[in-house]
Design brief:
three-stranded antiparallel sheet; 57% helix; Helix Hairpins; five-stranded mixed sheet; wza like fold; alpha+beta
């Protein structure tokens, strides 16, 4: 009877952890739902790009298509759906259609936290992150913050602040290099941060890729404008040469008409011959007017292209300056928050040794829709959160006992 009981308990334990294992190991494509905010666009069609929100009916509003169903689709599925519809007439290529997820729908946190309610979702958030975003545990109920709970949150917050600071530092360095028309930049100052080498390498690689993409987009646009300018210059040269030859032909034809008219006066040639020469002269004059008109249009086009080339550089530099200003301001804000975070960590570390090293007073239940049904999942601080989850946090102060003072 005992082996059977042991097997029954083991099976029950395995079944209890299946939901959490599934969420931790399976990485199914993210499915859109009401509240998600997307950026849709078509390369080369500036007026098409827009920011759209999946409405309560699960639809998004798309130019030329109207309401399009998005709920339940992955980003790839939605991009494919839009591409299939927009490419029917052949004017738009499927590869030109872009769909980006700008903001996830929120998740919700309730219970013994300072600021319960909706919280913006970011990939990789855990219960620990959620509690930190909600302002930590409710100090009014708990009377004071428990360092055993707040220390991991503070460390995680401190690390996130350092990551954000390194990201902004790298961004400022790359923007400064781009403003100086440099093809490379030195990110060695970012490696002084107290983060792992791997983490900083990843942030540096991301910034280098972003720098390369910005440079490539600028160079491609500049090359297109300069190529258009060269074509207009070639057209101007051809038209100027045509005008020159046509002017010479006009002089010769005018002389021929004058001779014919003189001969006709003497009765040496027929009047019809004179009319033919006059007709030829009129055609040459019409061609000259047409050439002159095309010259004026080409010159106007050249002036516009020249201005666009100058304007592109001015706008690009203005955008870089604005982004550099924002990065610098954000760096200062993060530095201030880091100082405050460091002070909190010092205080927490001073009193942490006085408390028992366990989390027996914390209970977390994640309410999640699974196959359309709301399911309560027992969780801990490292459990990953998904959009639309409701995280219920409960503190039991009576279980968080002070340990004897020891050094």
């Amino acid at each position: 009877m005992k082996p059977f009981a042991f097997r029954a308990v083991s099976l029950a334990t395995m079944l209890a952890v299946i939901p959490l294992c599934a969420t931790a190991t399976e990485r199914a494509p993210y499915r859109l739902a009401p509240g998600d905010i997307l950026q849709i666009g078509v390369f080369g069609v500036a007026d098409f790009g827009r920011r759209v929100t999946v409405n309560v009916d699960g639809d998004i509003s798309v130019p030329f298509l109207g309401e399009v169903e998005a709920e339940g689709l992955s980003i790839r599925d939605l991009r494919q759906s839009l591409g299939d519809r927009l490419t029917k007439d052949g004017r738009i290529e499927a590869a030109d259609v872009t769909v980006e997820l700008l903001e996830y729908r929120p998740f919700y946190i309730a219970g013994d936290v300072s600021r319960p309610g909706a919280v913006p979702y970011r990939p990789g958030l855990t219960v620990r992150h959620a509690v930190a975003l909600a302002g930590g545990f409710d100090a009014l109920r708990f009377r004071t913050e428990n360092p055993l709970m707040t220390a991991p949150d503070l460390k995680n917050e401190n690390e996130e602040l350092w990551i954000d600071l390194v990201r902004q530092e790298a961004r400022a360095i790359s923007l400064s290099a781009e403003l100086a028309d440099q093809d490379t930049f030195d990110l060695s100052p970012a490696y002084s941060a107290p983060l792992s080498r791997k983490s900083i390498d990843e942030l540096a690689d991301f910034e280098r890729r972003d720098f390369a993409m910005r440079r490539s987009a600028f160079v491609t646009q500049r090359a297109f404008l300069e190529s258009s300018l060269r074509r207009v210059d070639d057209e101007l040269s051809t038209l100027a040469e045509s005008r020159k030859h046509n002017a010479q032909a006009l002089i010769l034809q005018q002389a021929a008409v004058d001779r014919m008219e003189g001969s006709a006066t003497k009765g040496l040639v027929m009047v019809s011959r004179v009319d033919d020469e006059r007709q030829t002269l009129a055609e040459l004059r019409g061609q000259q007017v047409d050439i002159q008109s095309r010259l004026v249009m080409a010159q106007r086009t050249r002036a516009e292209l020249t201005r666009n080339i100058e304007l592109q550089k001015e706008q690009h530099r203005a955008q870089l300056n604005e982004r550099l200003r924002e990065a610098t301001i954000e760096k200062e804000k993060l530095s201030s928050r880091l100082r405050a975070s460091g002070e909190k960590l010092l205080y927490t570390g001073a009193i942490k040794a006085q408390l028992r090293d366990d989390n027996s007073g914390l209970s977390v239940v994640v309410h999640r829709k699974v196959d359309g049904a709301l399911t309560g999942i027992e969780a801990d601080e490292d459990t990953e959160i998904l959009p639309d989850d409701v995280v219920e946090v409960t503190l039991r102060p009576e279980q968080m006992m002070l340990a004897p003072n020891s050094n």
